[in-house]
Amino acid sequence: MKRYRAIIIILILTVLLAVSSLFGWLSFPKNIFWRTVSPVGAVLKVSFGRVPKTFTNIFEINRILKQNHDLINENLNLQSQLAQLNEVSYENEILKKELKFSQSQSLNMALVPSAIIGRASGYLKSVVIDKGEKDGVVKGQAVVSEGFLVGIIKSVQADSAEVTLVTDYNSLVPAILQDSRGTGLLRGGLEGLVVEDIPLNIGTKNGESVVTSGLGGQIPAGLVIGKVQNLISKPGEIFQKVSIGSPIDFSRLEVLFVVKK
Amino acid sequence: MIKNIVKIFAIFFLVIVQLTLVPYFAIGNVWPNLVFILVLVLVIFDHDYDAYLTASFGGLMLDLASPMFFGFFTLILMGFALMTKFLVNKFLTGTSPLVMSVIIFICIVIYDSIFVIISHEFNLIGFIFNILFSIAWAQFFLYILNLRSKRFNISTVRLDLR
Predict the structure, then answer these.
(1) Looking at the structure, do residues A193 and A229 belong to the same domain, yes or no?
(2) CA of A51: how far to CAs of A45, A56, B7, B20, B154, in Å?
(3) Are residues A148 and A68 in the same domain?
């Protein structure tokens, strides 16, 4: 018994922390933990983190070349679209002034850049970022990468925050299909990213963009999530379900931006 | 006392590696849990105290980093340590790298299945690579423990199926 004293102390500590987690008192020990881990982790990441990337790049050179070609094409398309959008935006501003509207909410968004400092498990779609309460991060805020929604802030400590990725089964984000205007809930899980609970009277289109609807919480409207791939609900179901394709590789996220509404 | 502190620091370092570095070596978005593998190897190698210390302290640290309810990893690691100890005591008096690989294989399949159920996500490639990597890591830990055993003149284990 005496030999196992250290283990018993650790187990008692675990039980105490488990009880304190029920009252939401875990923020302080979690913050201390990540403050200790993040500098060592950063050193390890700089020293060894590039090794797998180098190997992956060698094996994926063909894919990268094709992707590069596709991106150039997409970039040209986007540039032409941007020119059109600038024109529309200019027109919109003039109309707003005419109608004495205030600026849209989306223009009041601020982004907090943050780095990923840890991941608990590949199965649990959650990451820890190096920004917390001190930087104005609050629970429920949206997290984006390359302009696409990737997660929601689940809990916040003083210097770090936990992000539940949208690919997590338990993540639910109100979303809207941009062309058909169908609303639904974005969820992750076994089927990949899906938007469910879309009313049956909505005619969904493959390839239409999916954005956040901004209903409730801290998530602003209009954040791009991805594009509709196909309808996956079966006949006879009372709601429609569509699968969503996101260009983001969720396993290779590095820098994220917290969106402050 | 000093030995315990050194061990705790070693476990803490392993947890840091697990949380910050191992994810970069993920295949199919799945990566092995080194703490879990070390616990299994220590149990199989009859280092009960070290196994339970790793399970409890490693579990506590992983819980601090986990989005799951607090105590989840401690429960899983301690549970697997006790279960493996029971099975090894019941059916084996010693073990070899092959038998150890089989035990690790079974434990990893159960461990991954728990996470598949929790996360509602299954990636076959990731699942297979995770098992292979876990067995490779187990062999590495076994090699280190073997070196240590030789240095301290601890009798070596042997395969003896009852």
Answers:
(1) yes
(2) 10, 9, 28, 14, 37
(3) no
* A124-165 per-position pLDDT tens digit: 788 899 888 888 899 889 998 888 889 999 888 888 899 999
Of A99, A126, A147, the position where a domain reaches its end is: A99
Residue whose token pair is 């993540």: A171
Whole domain around residue A82: which residue ranges? 60-99
Please give the interface size between A and B, counted as residue pairs whose CB atoms are below 8 Å apart.
Answer: 131
ipTM of the complex: 0.76
Best B64, B117, B125 member to test A by mutation, with max A CBs in 10 Å, is: B64
Burial B16-30 (b: 16+ CB within 10 A, else e): bbbbbbbbbbbbbbb
Where do runs of H (alpha helix) occur along A49-157? 50-59, 61-99
Residue B84: count of CB within 10 angstroms of its CB? 21
Longest dimension (CA), chain A: 81
Q: Nearest chain A Cα to B74, which residue?
A: A14
Summarised one tens digit per residue, pLDDT across range B19-49 is: 888 887 777 777 888 999 999 988 888 888 8
**Tokens standing for residue A250:** 């969720």
CA angle A106, A111, A114 (to 5 degrees): 150
B98 class by beta-carbon count within 10 Å (0-12 exposed, 13-18 middle, 19+ buried): exposed
A92 and A200 inside one domain: no
Amino acid at A186: L
